[in-house]
Amino acid sequence: MPSTAGSRLLENYRPPFDATAVRKLRESGAIVVGKTNLDEFGMGSTTEGSAYQVTANPWDLSRVPGGSSGGSAAAVSARQCMVALGSDTGGSVRQPASFCGVVGLKPTYGRVSRYGLVAYASSLDVIGCFGSSVADSGILLGAISGHDKFDATSSKRDIPDYASQFVAIDYLESKPLKGLRVGVIRETLEDGVDSEVISSVRDAVSHLEQLGCTATEVSLPSFSLGLPAYYILASSESSSNLSRYDGVRYGNQVFGDELNSLYGDSRAQGFGSEVKMRILMGTYALSAGYYDAYYKRAQQVRTIIRNSFKEALDNNDILISPAAPTVAYKIGEKKNDPLAMYAGDIMTVNVNLAGLPALVLPCGFVEGGPAGLPVGFQLIGAAFSEEKLLKIGHIFEQTLPGCSFVPPIVADE
Ligand code: GLN
């Protein structure tokens, strides 16, 4: 099957091997039914950045499914498949999960091998799991996790039996989450976030309290630094990673009279504008004279963010935020305003900078579209605490009153 990463440059490219995550799925008996659309090389938040198609959101076909793994989220939401993989460098599994009303799990950095994943920013990239339930996404995680000799950053930790965490509703005690300390991140429920999103997330927190949790507000003063640091680091790493697409080693080639024009023309015609902008930004941030002011500074901010999450997670079992400041945008709404599009990633990028696991699950609706638009909230845990996140998420979704997250496109059939 071709792997294009949403890029013209890789049109018709057929990889010679399966990624480790896919190999493991096939070995456990999974049937791979297709590959899904995405923003070119994972760069974007709406899937409009694909060189091929615009993917629609099954809740409202005039809206985007989110991105960059929007095709995977839409496919699961529309019940075209049971589960799907995506890649989460700065939120590309969690934000589309939120926009499409499905579950999106971003594992701890290193939990899943990146071997065979098309690289965007290697210190942030993680393969993540979409499902229409927490249980499905947990089962998927169990199947793809583990050490891999082909990825030196993959962890040697044992793989927990994630499915054993799931207790069916009839067997739950009356306060099944008694004693669990939940920290609600103050900076994520302030100005710039839609009021309806804030109230849905606050309702989700009340629901967790009814299940026995104690919720308190926590402040992460460095939270807003995540966005600029992320865009510097992700662009820098991508400028290096994407240098391999030179028209010789991979994908489409534009013939030139001499080598430099072969490289240059292949890249000029193969890459889309967003990718070119990121390569320029990253090359600039890494260049002599600017390196200290941008790349090094962003790395320092990354350490501050990581430490502030660690401290907050020493005092709380999990942290909570919205998955995105808004519900799904209209197609075209943000396409020509990259900064507004980047700003929509504020809820997710910090988690990648800190390397932590996070689970996004639907918690309610706001008005819009033919049947309302889903809102997702995010549970963030300490490194390698996926078991805990899945357990909480499973209890949450089973006990959430009166919500069905099946989109109208399927419900009508
Ligand atoms: N929207 C973010 C970006 O464009 C995140 C992308 C991702 O996680 N792949 O970089």
TrEMBL record:
Keyword Ribosomal protein listed: no
Entry EC number(s): 6.3.5.7
A GO MF term: glutaminyl-tRNA synthase (glutamine-hydrolyzing) activity
Misc: This protein may be expected to contain an N-terminal transit peptide but none has been predicted.
UniProt keyword annotations, A-Z: ATP-binding, Chloroplast, Ligase, Mitochondrion, Nucleotide-binding, Plastid, Protein biosynthesis
Entry-linked NCBIfam families: gatA
Function: Allows the formation of correctly charged Gln-tRNA(Gln) through the transamidation of misacylated Glu-tRNA(Gln) in chloroplasts and mitochondria. The reaction takes place in the presence of glutamine and ATP through an activated gamma-phospho-Glu-tRNA(Gln).
PROSITE patterns per UniProt: AMIDASES
A cellular component annotation (GO) from this entry: chloroplast stroma
Membership in a protein family: Belongs to the amidase family. GatA subfamily.
Coiled coil: none
Reactions performed catalytically: L-glutamyl-tRNA(Gln) + L-glutamine + ATP + H2O = L-glutaminyl-tRNA(Gln) + L-glutamate + ADP + phosphate + H(+)
Cited PANTHER family: GLUTAMYL-TRNA(GLN) AMIDOTRANSFERASE SUBUNIT A, MITOCHONDRIAL (PTHR11895:SF7), TRANSAMIDASE (PTHR11895)
Main location: mitochondrion
One GO BP annotation of this record: mitochondrial translation
Top enzyme category: ligase
The protein's name: Glutamyl-tRNA(Gln) amidotransferase subunit A, chloroplastic/mitochondrial
Catalytic residues of the enzyme: 68 (charge relay system), 92 (acyl-ester intermediate)
UniProt-annotated location(s): Mitochondrion; Plastid, Chloroplast stroma
